[in-house]
Design a protein that fits this description.
The chain has 5 helices and 7 strands, in the order E-H-H-E-E-E-E-E-H-E-H-H. The longest helix is centred in the C-terminal third of the chain and has 18 residues. The chain has a domain of 97 residues: Roll (Structural Genomics Hypothetical 15.5 Kd Protein In mrcA-pckA Intergenic Region, Chain A), CATH 3.10.290.10. The radius of gyration is 24 Å and the shape is elongated. It is of the alpha+beta class and 145 residues long. It is 34% helix and 17% strand. Helix 1 crosses helix 2. The N and C termini lie far apart (90 Å).
Length: 145
């Protein structure tokens, strides 16, 4: 009969550090996109650039790569600091990359512009009545009233 001695934690080999990770998997793990399929779709439609070039979802991403990610109206310019293929807490995801100062300032200015554009808008106090709905439908634009 063969007996096995229990292994201590020191004897368990740790997995080797990853040299590369798929681009779509990293974007999902770094929480830029909610699902991996959304990350893949963004890469395929050209919303993600690696070093100024359009990438593929299966491209191997390495530490030090520069990414430009367009998500909605926001554009992130980041440098990859760490690799992960699992989605974890936001604090861990933020440690995987560093955003450039110019990118952060540009995003804040764009957000301030969007807020300033909405300042003049005043929502109607009540729903439009039957006559107003007909006028809106005839004009095709509520801002024309």
């Amino acid at each position: 009969m063969v007996s096995f001695a229990p292994m201590s934690k020191q004897e368990i080999p740790s997995p080797p550090p990853q040299a590369s990770v798929r681009l779509d998997l990293w974007l999902w793990a770094a929480r830029f996109f909610k699902t991996r399929s959304l990350a893949r779709q963004a890469v395929e439609t050209g919303k993600v650039e690696i070093g100024g070039q359009r990438g593929k979802a299966s491209r191997a991403l390495r530490v030090g790569d520069a990414l430009r990610i367009a998500r909605g109206e926001e554009i992130f310019e980041i440098a990859v600091l760490g690799l992960s293929d699992t989605r974890g807490p936001a604090s861990v995801a933020q440690s995987l990359y560093a955003e450039t100062e110019a990118s952060r300032l540009a995003r804040e200015q764009a957000r301030a512009m969007r807020v300033a554009e909405r300042n003049g808008y005043r929502a109607p106090e009540t729903k439009p009545d039957k006559r107003a709905r007909r006028l809106i439908k005839a004009l095709g634009d509520i801002d024309a009233l």
